[in-house]
Design goal:
It is a single chain. By secondary structure, the chain is an alpha+beta fold. It has 3 domains: about 5-70, Uridine Diphospho-n-acetylenolpyruvylglucosamine Reductase, domain 2, CATH 3.30.43.10; about 75-195, Uridine Diphospho-n-acetylenolpyruvylglucosamine Reductase, domain 3 (2-Layer Sandwich); about 240-375, UDP-N-acetylenolpyruvoylglucosamine reductase, C-terminal domain (Uridine Diphospho-n-acetylenolpyruvylglucosamine Reductase, domain 1), CATH 3.90.78. Helices cover about 30% and strands about 20% of the residues. The chain has 11 helices and 19 strands. It has helices at about 35-45, 100-110, 125-130, 165, 205-210, 220-235, 255-270, 275-280, 300-305, 335-355, 370-375; strands at about 5-10, 20-30, 50, 60, 65-70, 75-80, 90-95, 135, 140, 145-155, 160-165, 185-195, 255, 285, 295-300, 315, 320, 330, 365. Helix 5 packs across helix 6 (about 220-235) and helix 7 (about 255-270) runs antiparallel to helix 8 (about 275-280). The longest helix is centred in the last third of the chain and has 19 residues, at about 335-355. The protein starts with a strand and ends with a helix.
Length: about 375
């Protein structure tokens, strides 16, 4: 089948923010080999390339992306070891094509009783993209179950296999969004899940959910249902009528133990002892995969934003979510300019008041370095 190429396509409907100008070319890739034609097109016109999954972790510029967008649309899950997996103590291997919607995969594993990703229920986006920032939630992350990934090099069109270790997964990080950003199209991921129940119920919200219902031994289905309900309260799942968002706009900063203590002292001096106590109670020891710094601490960015009085802060039609300040909302009709004006103000205020630099979680697409500095620089 030949590659489907569209020209001057508005990207707004392809993102959960519902924001963004047009792409010069949008290539829908239904087999990894087709990506080679898209690469040839980009080369022939010296255009940059960008891989667009479900658009739930990006902010596209109002001017759009003057280049070639590759949109993986290959679907399918192959299961290995399904028979053996009926016995406890065994594992089942899932080969998942990049375009497969992530939550559909999670739903299927829960139906089958394969453990390992149930707490990652209801995260939007595609399965290939799940690897890019090592998605994580409620005590699980992709790195716990990843075996390997098939990737296609965008420079040469060559397919290769990367073992989990080569992907260097850590908190919201991999080679795909750091050292080797923009080099690969992830074509499929392979996960190893357990037939033996491994409930992860450590998170406070999850514990509270089951305590309220007097459920001491929740099933895997109960856990998925709990996560969906908890998430729906906290993260407005982007739907047309609600405007849009891209989930957490800021990462939780990871600090050394010494930096964490200085932050507590600064918060106590600036906002008082109750604020300091909230910080001490809520920050958790960093469990980031691949982190060698065992004494590092993860600080809740939402708390810092809240302490700075930024809940509900607005610019144009964009707003810091009043109930979950990690999220920036498109209240309907927001532009990328509105969103970055809000984000820049949040970064500068949090830095001024606490000394912490907040990093963005979504990728910015179609912005020049100069624009990014102008919006997000903390010096001005
Ligand atoms: C309401 C909401 C809640 C969320 N909750 C969470 C959460 O709890 N935990 C969490 O970790 N994330 C969360 N996210 C963020 C987001 O859903 C995940 O990061 C998701 O994996 C992104 O998938 P996507 O297909 O939408 O990727 P996109 O947004 O399309 O792309 C994200 C990045 O991945 C790259 N990319 C996409 N596909 C590929 C591919 N096949 N090969 C190479 N690069 C690729 C893109 O170039 C881009 O850099 C949330 C987002 C929303 C809107």
């Amino acid at each position: 089948m030949s590659l489907e190429i569209q020209q001057d396509v508005p990207l707004k409907p392809y993102t959960t923010f519902k924001i963004g100008g047009p792409a010069r070319y949008l290539c829908t890739v239904t087999a990894p080999e087709q990506a080679r034609d898209a690469i040839a097109l980009a080369r022939s016109q010296s255009l940059p390339m960008f891989v667009l999954g479900g658009g739930s972790n990006i902010l596209v510029s109002d001017a759009g992306f003057h280049g070639v967008v590759l949109h993986p649309a290959h679907l399918g899950v192959e299961v290995e070891g399904q028979e053996a997996a009926r016995h406890p103590e065994t594992s089942v291997r899932l080969h998942i094509k990049a375009g497969e919607p992530w939550d559909r995969v999670v739903g299927r594993t829960v139906e089958q009783g394969w453990w390992g990703i149930e707490n990652l229920s209801h995260i939007p986006g595609q399965s290939g993209a799940a690897l890019v920032q090592n998605i994580g939630a409620y005590g699980q992350q992709l790195s716990d179950v990843l075996e390997h990934a098939e990737v296609l090099r965008l420079s040469s069109g060559e397919l290769q296999t990367l073992a989990a270790g080569e992907c260097r997964l850590a908190y919201r990080r991999s080679i795909f969004n750091s050292t080797r950003r923009g080099e690969f199209l992830i074509s499929s991921i392979t996960l190893s899940l357990s037939a033996k129940p491994k409930p992860q119920l450590g998170y406070r919200d999850v514990q509270a959910y089951f305590a309220d219902r007097g459920n001491r031994q929740p099933s895997q289905r109960d856990i998925r249902e709990a996560i969906i309900q908890i998430r729906d309260r906290k993260f407005p799942y982007p739907r047309e009528e609600r405007g849009g968002n891209a989930g957490s706009f800021f990462k939780n900063p990871t600090l050394s133990a010494g930096e964490g203590q200085s932050l507590e002292a600064r918060v106590g001096a600036r906002f008082g002892h109750p604020a300091r106590d909230r910080l001490t109670a809520s920050r958790s020891r960093s469990g980031a995969a691949g982190s060698s710094a065992s004494d590092s601490v993860k600080v809740p960015a939402a708390l810092l934003i809240d302490l700075c009085g930024l809940k509900g802060f607005e610019a144009g039609r964009a707003q810091v979510n009043p109930s979950q300040p990690l999220v920036i909302l498109n209240q309907g009709g927001a532009t990328a300019d509105d969103v970055l004006c809000v984000a820049g103000h949040v970064r500068r205020t949090v830095y001024r008041e606490t000394g912490v630099v907040l990093e963005l979680e979504p990728e910015l697409v179609g912005f020049s370095r100069r624009e990014v500095n102008r919006y997000l620089g903390i010096g001005s």
